[in-house]
Design goal:
By secondary structure, the chain is an alpha+beta fold. Helix content is 33%, strand content 23%. Strands 7-4-3-8-9 form a 5-stranded mixed sheet, covered by helices on one side. Strands 10-12-11 form a 3-stranded antiparallel sheet, with no helix packed on it. The chain has a two-stranded antiparallel ribbon with strand order 1-2.
């Protein structure tokens, strides 16, 4: 039984799976996830505990960047295994007392889920027994407008997330969907993209409006230019 329980705790949805559904109480009212977010991208992320320094720096950063995510039709939803009143007190303390990297008077307006039963954390594999049995690790789930898990990133308790990278991942996912391409290492808008996502360059060239748009270094590695302005115009609200 003990082995089975541990297995259930660390189980998690895979990329391409429907996001596990749940109903929860949050600092912004009740939510029905992911139904309430149909038609939008969602970043569902967990943090280990309220009133901890790394988590505080992360929430301030996410709140300060919320508008950038909103521009990409993306909602933020946080979670920890703390209770609602702890969440409210912690977020009030952040706004009234904490300053970090020039950020202060930061108000967190996205929902923070109460998960004292760890029901949601277990559904998403956010509890990792090797790291902690009573705290959620720093998990990040990117969920698309159809409710499908598209990217999963995990961090240990001691490591704060790179929020520029989280934003870049969202931009890259939307760009890949919009233009039918793949994005290479360290890709950012304005960089060349890889085409096609699978198959040969010959196949790819048949799909392109102009074969001159593509440069093939070999049969398996072909790129094309994708203007930065074109990217932002396609994915920004």
């Amino acid at each position: 039984m003990e082995e089975k329980e541990i297995q259930e705790v660390v189980s998690l949805p895979r990329i391409g799976d429907p996001a596990p559904s749940f109903k929860a109480v949050t600092t912004q009212g009740d939510i029905n996830f992911p139904s309430d977010y149909k038609g939008k991208w969602t970043i569902l992320f967990s943090h280990p505990a309220d009133f901890t320094p790394v988590c505080t720096s992360e929430f301030m950063t996410f709140a300060s960047m919320e508008e950038k995510f909103e521009e990409l039709n993306c909602k933020l939803v946080g979670l920890s295994v703390d209770g609602l009143y702890s969440h409210i007190a912690w977020l009030r303390t952040i706004k009234e007392k904490i300053e970090y990297k020039g950020m202060k008077d930061v108000e967190v307006t996205f929902p923070l889920i109460e998960d004292i039963t760890m029901e949601v954390a277990k559904k998403y594999g956010m509890i990792q027994p090797g790291e902690a049995t009573t705290k959620a690790v720093r998990a990040v789930f990117f969920i698309d407008p159809k409710g499908i898990v598209r990217t999963i990133i995990y961090y240990p308790l001691s490591l704060g997330r790179n929020f520029d990278e989280l934003h870049r991942v969202l931009v890259a996912l939307q760009t890949a969907d919009e233009f039918g391409v793949a994005t290479p290492a360290d890709w950012r808008p304005g960089d060349d993209v890889i085409v096609p996502t699978a198959g040969s360059c010959g196949t790819a060239k048949e799909r392109m409006e102009s074969k001159d748009e593509m440069h093939c270094y070999d049969w398996f590695f072909c790129t094309k230019k994708l203007d930065e302005e074109k990217v932002w115009k396609a994915i920004k609200k």
